[in-house]
Amino acid sequence: MPEEKSVYILSTSVVSPQASFEEMMKEPANYNGDKLTCIEPDYTKYVDAKLIRRMSRIIKMGVAAASEALAQADVQMPDAIITGTAYGCLTDTDQFLTRMVEFKETLLSPTAFIQSTHNTVAAQIALMLKCHNYNNTYVHRGSSFEAALTDAVSLLEEGEAKNVLIGAADEITDKSHAILKRFGLYKTEGESLSLIDSNTKGTMAGDGSAFL
């Protein structure tokens, strides 16, 4: 029988409505209403200021969380980068579709389209690291991260990789929030700390990025 390999989590990092994993366990922030707001870090610590201006919010959140996770684990170059997302880069998708209508499908800048694809976050991380190793993104709505995690564990157990950077990122925009709200997905007066014990329909909209 092949030797069984152990899989360990070396580090974790998150950009979310909570300041950090550590703060969330000690004293979690409480939110009311139908939407959570991310506590975003100083992105200049992770990305050159010139590049930040060209990045959408979800890309900045993903790059920051990934960079912090790599730094904590003292890993310079991962053997694989695997991400999961439910909706991908909604802001850039919205911009591209809006410009298509406004310019009647002529003279369109390709930037928003290029950055609207679901694998943009993983691709941007790879470009910054100059990483040419295995790179994959899963898009299976609520099970996207589980699929990415399964892929990562498989690579590690099969000896195809030693260190894998895995994460998930999603964003809520004003338009996507308004559309999903019509389906009764969100509570009008939710409270984040008691949300899990609620017996009524709906949740609170949230976004962010987590990497390990």
UniProtKB/TrEMBL annotation:
Name of the molecule in the record: Beta-ketoacyl synthase chain length factor
Pfam family, one: Ketoacyl-synt_2
Keywords: Transferase
Sequence ranges assigned to domain Beta-ketoacyl synthase-like N-terminal in this UniProt record: 46-178
PANTHER family: 3-OXOACYL-[ACYL-CARRIER-PROTEIN] SYNTHASE, MITOCHONDRIAL, POLYKETIDE SYNTHASE-RELATED
InterPro entries on file: Beta-ketoacyl_synthase (IPR000794), Ketoacyl_synth_N (IPR014030), Thiolase-like (IPR016039)
Domain of life of the source: Bacteria
